[in-house]
Design brief:
Layout: H1 2-23, H2 33-45, E1 55-59, H3 65-74, E2 77-82, E3 96-101, E4 112-118, H4 129-139, E5 140-152, E6 159-160, E7 170-171, H5 174-182, E8 186-199, E9 205-215
Parallel strand pairs: 1-2, 1-4, 2-3, 4-5
Antiparallel strand pairs: 5-9, 6-7, 8-9
The structure holds S-adenosylmethionine (SAM).
Length: about 220
């Protein structure tokens, strides 16, 4: 029970933090070039249609601009899920995109063809990672794909870089990410590194790691 309370507290911290960033228009990730590269990767990594339009879940969709891109590029039916209602994306001209407000670990559905997590897992507490991955896997149909994009650690180990407001930023290694998904029976089908052209105050040049995992 204590763990659930802790989780609710941390989810509040994350919501407050992101509300502040969106509210003050510091959400530099929305519409960033790096997101365009993630979109290209997702389109390349998506499984083929299996008897109808693909069903896609975009975890932590934020303003929903990329959610709409997935709908249009894949002619897919996409749900954008976020703790916050900050959706201000234009309507999809192909496929469909709709927003659902809530916490990923409480989201219920099944038979998704594709799950995308662009910058959400790396803000979760480490003790939730395993449940996070098992939950997402259970949403996928067999043969479904999960694309995850996260901060790539420049120091060859997993490091927490919390913000002053308590929101966690994890820098992950590829090995840790692959092992995490392997525990849920998911295997790598594609991977890439995306330069953020951003130098951390500690002097590191940072990248995103983007990996596609398939559910057997
Ligand atoms: C770095 S932003 C990325 C937004 C979007 N994917 C993009 O690239 O434009 C992370 C988003 O995840 C959302 N988020 C964080 N934890 C979440 C959770 N447990 N369930 C649903 N959304 C969550 C935040 O509110 C935030 O909008």
């Amino acid at each position: 029970m204590r763990m659930r309370d802790d989780y609710a507290d941390y989810r509040e911290t994350v919501s407050r933090s992101f509300a502040d960033w969106y509210g003050s228009e510091r959400d530099s990730w929305t519409g960033a070039d790096t997101n365009d590269r993630v979109t290209e990767f997702v389109v390349r990594s998506a499984p083929p249609e299996a008897g109808g339009p693909r069903r896609v879940l975009d975890i932590g969709c934020g303003r929903g601009h990329q959610t709409v891109q997935f709908a249009e590029r894949l002619a897919a039916d996409v749900i954008g899920l976020d703790l916050l209602d900050v959706w201000d994306a234009p309507a999809a001209r192909r496929g469909s995109a709709r927003m659902c407000r809530g916490d990923f670990l409480s989201f219920r559905d099944s038979s998704m063809d594709l799950v995308v997590d662009n910058g959400c897992l790396h803000h979760q507490r480490r003790e939730e990672w395993s449940a996070w991955v098992r939950h997402g896997r259970a949403l996928l149909r067999p043969g479904g794909v999960w694309v995850v994009s996260c901060f790539l650690s420049p120091v060859a180990e997993v490091v927490a870089r919390p913000l002053p407001d308590g929101r966690l930023n994890w820098w992950l290694t590829e090995q840790a990410l692959v092992e995490l998904f392997a525990t849920a029976g998911m295997t790598v089908t594609n991977r890439d590194e995306i330069d953020r052209h951003f130098r951390h105050r500690d002097g590191y040049w940072l990248k995103y790691l983007v990996v596609a995992f398939s559910r057997e």
